[in-house]
User: Which sequence fits this backbone?
């Protein structure tokens, strides 16, 4: 086990290797996440609508 001073030096070295995204990359990935969330929510809304309509028809038929 490394002593605390060596550990802190290693942490500082590793943090120095981190590549931070640019403002443009953050913006683009945020827009992509929002677009995919909208597409996914629309998909599940339509699937729910289809299943609900199907079940309603089945219940009307047997009820």
Assistant:
């Amino acid at each position: 086990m490394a002593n605390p001073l060596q550990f802190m030096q290693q942490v500082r070295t590793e943090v120095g290797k981190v590549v931070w995204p640019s403002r443009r990359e953050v913006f683009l990935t945020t827009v992509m996440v929002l677009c995919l969330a909208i597409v996914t929510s629309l998909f599940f809304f339509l699937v729910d609508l289809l299943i609900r309509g199907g079940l309603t028809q089945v219940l009307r038929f047997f009820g």
Notes: The chain is about 85% helix and 0% strand.
